[in-house]
Write a structure and sequence with these properties.
Length: 121
């Protein structure tokens, strides 16, 4: 059974860069045909998809966040990393990593438990 675990700082200052890690166990992030997404939920709002890194290493980002987002991976550690730059308080949210399968990229059978990120001075 695949498990995902997010980790990173809970509090970051405006204008800084957020770095979050998703550690995957029970399966490899290079296994075809999995897509490892980052999704967030601001307080009182719905889920917002940020982007993904595919089994191949290719990436794709939400157009609204593309200019500030990078997703990378460390295959030796079986981890995917999200970097979000130029933070504002509007980036405050619970951040999740989740896995989708090719052919059904809008459905996420596997999720991490989420990590709260607060952007505040």
């Amino acid at each position: 059974q695949v498990q995902l675990q997010e980790s990173g700082p809970g509090l970051v200052k405006p204008s800084q860069t957020l770095s979050l890690t998703c550690t995957v166990s029970g399966g490899s992030i290079t296994t075809r045909y999995y897509y490892w997404s980052w999704i967030r939920q601001p307080p009182g709002k719905g889920l917002e998809w940020i982007g993904y890194i595919a089994y191949s290493g290719s990436t794709y980002y939400s157009p609204s966040l593309k200019s500030r987002t990078s997703i990378s991976r460390d295959t030796s550690k079986n981890q995917a990393t999200l970097q979000l730059r130029s933070l504002t308080p509007e980036d405050t949210a619970v951040y999740y990593c989740a896995r989708a399968d090719e052919g059904d990229l809008g459905r996420y059978p596997y999720w991490g438990q989420g990590t709260q990120v607060t952007v505040s001075s």
